[in-house]
Design brief:
- The chain contains 14 helices and twelve strands.
- It has about 525 residues and is an alpha/beta fold.
- Strand 2 and strand 3 form a beta hairpin.
- Helix 2 packs parallel to helix 10, helix 5 runs antiparallel to helix 6 and helix 8 packs antiparallel against helix 10.
- The longest helix is centred in the C-terminal third of the chain and has 23 residues.
- It is globular, with a radius of gyration of 25 Å.
- The termini are far apart.
């Protein structure tokens, strides 16, 4: 039998870097495709065979962009009306309830006539974005983020947000709403890995991204506990015992580096037989050297924040916990990697939001849980001195009882009971935290329009006693367009342009560079609402 002659390293599954650069992070190294060599016992088997790197990475925290976290309320939660206030007028104001308003206009959004937002005491503006005072989300935020204390400033004054009125399919895992891939392309980068989440899916969440934005080489890594962070770099092996290639064990880092040196020597001695082109050999050498440098910067043990007393203290201050334990470890493990800029984008799925069970209490409790999660992540970002962008979305929505039946239980808060799925009553929130900002002193984190007035915190609007007016914005009726509104606002948060109109112009211009194959929204300039968090 004749043997196939190898012409170059690509025959071995190794991608050749055009500029022969030394990889500086995990994705650079993985992009070399050296997994193909593992069958020749040349490299550890943890490596993945990936196409050429598709998104620019960051070499230091300052270049990693604003951390981006996604929260998915799986099952179809309420966001508009019962939580974040929503207006029913084309002026897209959260507090414009429409001409000829009726006290029953918000029943299908969970609010009884007695809780109509026009009544005294029904609105809360603590966070910039207007919430209904009975909101479960608000209650959860309030539990975690308190007025200023002797040790902590009032983080609530450093937050703001917008509500996007846009429909989605009813309780379906096919809504392409997650924007993790796009956020990474727009600038939310990690030093080691790009996408992480709590679900074993491309996005790391239940809902997918639009198909045109999915990049297989950036597929999310599943992280649900701190020890799994170590696994992002721990080698392991099927050709040697695990202790030998576990850098977390005694002497592990030095042992792994020594092993990699042997790989280089082995590569030089063995592969010269098969490789005639010097540039191919140089590319392999660069990849090997990049791997060693990666271990100089990170170690499996250091990726687990429990091993770092300072990081553990921050996590416990934000999330709670004692000893070496941290409450809500699944959320905290993702939030830690993202706010440390080890990872670029993190996605969470919160199940149990399909709470149209003839009560209001179930929804209140679940919304409060999500509010607590968000508050904890904000506090963690604050303790680390990081800005933060949060995208809260749901794969559907819910409808209140048509007759306005009330849940009179203590946890029901006199709210209208939820009775059915209702994607036409869906919505999304984008929340921002700007470290060191005080809205009372520095102003809202919302742009002014070109008439010198502040833009509203609401994109689109609802019909009275009904659902979303699907012609109220370019994203209102299309689940495949919603991510564009989210990412346009995320890009605004990272703009370095000076002046509100300059921020808008900067984002619109950059859109075509970052997303050249995607059409821009006709009302893009209007949809951009956030001020820069970095300028």
């Amino acid at each position: 039998m004749s043997k196939k002659k190898l012409k170059n390293l690509s025959d071995l599954g190794v991608h050749i870097f055009d500029d022969h650069k030394i990889p500086s992070n995990r994705r650079d190294f993985l992009a070399s495709g050296i997994m193909g060599l593992s069958t020749m016992a040349l490299v550890p088997t943890v490596l993945l065979n990936s196409p050429k790197l598709m998104a620019q990475q960051c070499s230091n925290i300052a270049d990693c962009g604003v951390p981006f976290l996604s929260f998915e309320g799986a099952g179809g939660m309420n966001i508009a009306g019962g939580n974040a206030m929503v207006g029913m007028d084309p002026d897209q104001s959260q507090v414009n309830f429409g001409a000829g308003m009726s006290m029953t206009d918000y029943i299908r959004l969970g609010l009884s006539a007695e809780q109509h937002p026009s009544k005294p005491g029904m609105l809360n503006t603590t966070y910039g974005l207007v919430y209904h005072s009975t909101s479960g989300l608000l209650a959860g935020l309030q539990e975690m983020l308190t007025p200023a204390t002797a040790t902590d400033p009032d983080y609530r004054k450093s937050m703001d947000g917008i509500i996007i009125c846009a429909r989605s399919g009813d309780d379906s895992n096919s809504n392409p709403i997650n924007a993790a891939f796009q956020a990474n392309r727009a600038g939310s980068h990690g030093q080691l890995i790009q996408l992480i989440g709590g679900t074993n899916s491309d996005t790391g969440a239940r809902s997918p991204a639009v198909s045109t934005q999915i990049k297989s080489e950036l597929r999310s890594s599943r992280i649900t506990q701190f020890t799994e962070a170590s696994g992002l770099l721990s080698l392991g092996s099927s050709i040697m015992n695990n202790s030998f290639l576990d850098a977390a064990n005694t002497g592990g880092t030095a042992r792994v580096k020594g092993f990699l040196n042997k790989i280089i020597n082995l590569s030089q001695n063995r592969l010269d037989t098969f490789v005639n082109q010097q540039q191919n050999m140089q590319a392999l050498m660069n990849a090997q050297q990049g791997t060693k440098e990666l271990f100089d910067q990170f170690s499996p043990a250091s990726l687990n924040p429990v091993n770092n007393p300072a990081q553990l203290g921050q996590l416990q201050a934000a999330f709670g916990g004692t000893g070496s334990d941290v409450d809500d470890e699944d959320i905290a493990s993702v939030a830690s990697l993202v706010t440390n800029r080890i990872a670029g984008v993190g996605s969470f799925t919160v199940g149990g939001c399909d709470y149209h069970n003839g009560s209001a209490s179930s929804g209140q409790n679940k919304d409060k849980q999500i509010g607590r999660y968000i508050g904890k992540c904000v506090k963690l970002a604050a303790l680390k001195g990081q800005n933060l962008f949060i995208h809260l979305y749901t794969d559907g929505g819910v409808g209140g009882a048509t007759g306005g039946t009330i849940d009179t239980s203590p946890e029901g808060a006199e709210r209208v009971i939820w009775t059915n799925d209702s994607g036409t009553r869906s919505a999304q929130l984008c929340l921002v935290y700007k470290h060191g900002h005080d809205r009372d002193i520095n102003g809202a984190l919302i742009l002014d329009n070109n008439q010198g007035n502040q833009k509203t915190r609401q994109i689109g609007y609802f019909n009275k006693a009904g659902g979303i007016n699907t012609s109220s914005s370019s994203v209102a009726a299309s689940t495949e367009q919603i991510w564009k509104a989210v990412i346009l606002n995320y890009m605004a948060c990272m703009s370095t342009a000076v002046g509100d109109q300059a921020v808008v112009a900067d984002v619109v211009l950059k859109w075509n560079t970052i997303f050249p194959t995607e059409t821009s929204l006709d009302d893009a300039a209007e949809i951009i609402r956030f001020k820069s968090l970095v300028a």
